[in-house]
Amino acid sequence: MLAVFRSAQLISEYRNYINGRFVESPNTFEDLNPANGELVARVHEADAALVDQAVRAGRAALPAWRNTSAEQRAQYLERIAAVIERRADDFLAAEVADTGKPVSVASRVDIPRGAANFRAFAAMIRMSGGEVYETPTPEGRALNYSLRQPLGVVGIISPWNLPLLLFTWKVAPALACGNVIVAKPSEETPGTATLLAEVMDEVGLPEGVFNLVHGFGPGSAGAAIVDHPDVDGITFTGESKTGATIMRNVADKVRPVSFELGGKNAALVFADADFDKAVAGVARSSFLNTGQVCLCTERVYVERPIFDRFVAALAEQARALRPGDPLDPETTLGPLISRQHRDKVLSYYALAREEGATVVTGGGVPALGGKLDQGCYVEPTIWTGLDQSARCLQEEVFGPVCHVMPFDTEEQAIALANDSRYGLASAIWTTHLDRGHRLAARIDAGLVWLNTWFLRDLRTPFGGMKLSGLGREGGRHSLDFYSELKNVCVQM
Ligand SMILES: NC(=O)c1ccc[n+]([C@@H]2O[C@H](COP(=O)([O-])OP(=O)(O)OC[C@H]3O[C@@H](n4cnc5c(N)ncnc54)[C@H](O)[C@@H]3O)[C@@H](O)[C@H]2O)c1
Ligand SMILES: O=C/C=C/C=C(\O)C(=O)O
Fold it and tell me: Which segments within 201-296 are labelled E, that is strand?
């Protein structure tokens, strides 16, 4: 563990990476560790001029890069994955320092998926074929075949909750499809994206193919990417309201966009569920990463006969979580990402009381002592007793909190689950599998897990309905988004 901490201390400047060189800028901002408020690094903010340099570098690199073969690009992706795996400790240190997430979470979720995303899309681009149709014509026949060509210069903008996972979830397929990239990680979590630039440098990715710019959204690098006339497509993961802003800002350029946005995810627990499995599963889906996963459950609906027993058992799981030093392997609950985000979550803790919630457990800030009291910790919290129309049941909190409500019938359960402006993920806990499949088809969510949660096959479509997103990524859906598909028709 000391090694992890020490390597985090070695990094003190996060620079932009443009046209194969690390680039400083006169404006820097602080990257703070949310577990203790300590300075992790100074980050060089890219302004519109640096973003323009990055776009131009991409444009210049595109002709050669797009002419590489899928096999050549797959080999680059595999080399990138191998270096991520070799430098796993450095990535772990940077991720934990930026997010405060327990090393037990980052080492099992975030860092392995960083490498896995590159390996997955190396395999997928190798196997991706096209479409061919033989078309009868009055003269005989024609041959139709499709060509997969890159979008061009792709803007990637990612969030702070699963920084490396979500950044590479977009970088990997974009590169696989022959695009060049101008990518901006969240201002809260610049570390692992900067390490990824070091990896690109080490594997010898041609200059200008991968460009990294640091900064914020409005008035900074994020808006500069979106506004740049020579960016051919935008893939964004973040809040729904930010997605709407980006959509407005790219509208007149009619550029393809892929949005992975917010959620207010429901879990349905039936009386016939495996009780212990459902309790453990809902606890994990509510509190993993301190509730800062877009797929997390914030609304739990439980069939009435087991409601009281379920609430008591879930509260026991919440109380068993151990907030603490993220580098301590015993820690199972880290801080929220920032003071600002903690203020937001605590404002919902207060609102819930105003809206009449019963606070079954939590609702405040844990006293941890020492430096950790400078951290952004909150108690894992469970509410009951709110009306479905309450703001705490309609708005995304994005913290370690869920509300539990009883239901009596299947129809009631599906109506409650679908009573949301979001439609990202859901989990259904029942041993009655034909009911599970029936409800999975009726629930308004892009992702449905039956008797499990956050189990991922990277070939599957991933994305949300309603306010939760636009489009799907994952498997061939990523290849299709990061490509211009062309049809060629030949009169034989
Ligand atoms: N659906 C998913 O797969 C998914 C995954 C992770 C997080 N999320 C959502 O992301 C949110 C938390 O992440 P966040 O707080 O970083 O979101 P956010 O929208 O505040 O910021 C996301 C990214 O967008 C940038 N940005 C902000 N405003 C911008 C603008 N006007 N133009 C260009 N870029 C801009 C930010 O700098 C950051 O890099 C939650 O709502 C969560 O549900 C969704
Ligand atoms: O916080 C949201 C998590 C998204 C996860 C993925 O995009 C994935 O597992 O590929």
Answer: 210-212, 233-237, 257-260, 265-269
> What ipTM was estimated for this complex?
0.97
- Which ligand 2 atom lies nearest to the CA of residue 454? 9
pLDDT of residue 39: 96
Distance (Å, rounded) from C-alpha 215 to C-alpha 414?
41
| Alpha carbon of 368 to ligand 2 centroid (Å) | 30
Cα three-residue angle 396-191-25, rounded to 5 degrees:
110
**pLDDT class for 12, splitting at 50, 70, 90?**
confident
Per 3-state DSSP, the chain is made up of helix, strand and coil in percentages (nearest 5) of 45, 25, 35
Count CB atoms within 10 A of the CB of residue 103: 22
| Structural contact between residues 481 and 258, judged by C-beta atoms closer than 8 angstroms | yes
Give 182's contacts (C-beta < 8 A, 6+ positions apart).
51, 54, 55, 58, 153, 154, 155, 156, 211, 213, 225, 228, 231
Q: Which atom of ligand 1 is nearest to the CA of 396?
A: 41
CB 266 within 8 A of CB 415: no
CA 51 – ligand 1 centroid, Å:
19
Residues 166-205: pLDDT tens digits? 999 999 999 999 999 999 999 999 999 999 999 999 999 9
Q: Tell me, in angstroms, the distance from the centre of ligand 2 to residue 27's CA.
A: 31
* Rounded CA separation 175/353 (Å): 48
User: Phi then psi for 92, rounded to 5 degrees?
Assistant: -65, -45
The pLDDT value recorded for residue 10 is 53
246 alpha carbon, closest ligand: 1
Q: In what order do the strands lie in the sheet with 132-137?
A: 132-137, 140-150, 483-491
Pocket test for ligand 2, best of 101, 162, 258, 473 (most atoms within 8 A of CB): 162
Q: What percent of the chain has pLDDT over 90?
A: 98
216 lines ligand 1 (CB under 6 A): yes
Is 281's pLDDT higher than 70? yes
Tell me what the pLDDT averaged over the chain comes to.
97
CA distances from 370 to 36, 342, 366, 367 (A): 9, 19, 12, 9
CA separation for the pair 464, 449 (Å, rounded): 14
DSSP code of residue 333:
B
Instruction: Measure 155 CA to ligand 1 centroid, in angstroms.
Output: 14
Q: Would the pLDDT of 8 be above 60?
A: no
Q: Which of these, 454, 446, 442, lies nearest to 473 by C-alpha position? A: 446
What predicted TM-score, i.e. pTM, was given to this entire model? 0.97
Task: From the CA of 456, give the closest atom in ligand 2.
Answer: 9
User: Which string of DSSP letters, residue by residue, matches 182-223?
Assistant: EEE--TT--HHHHHHHHHHHHHTPPTTSEEE-B--STTSHHH
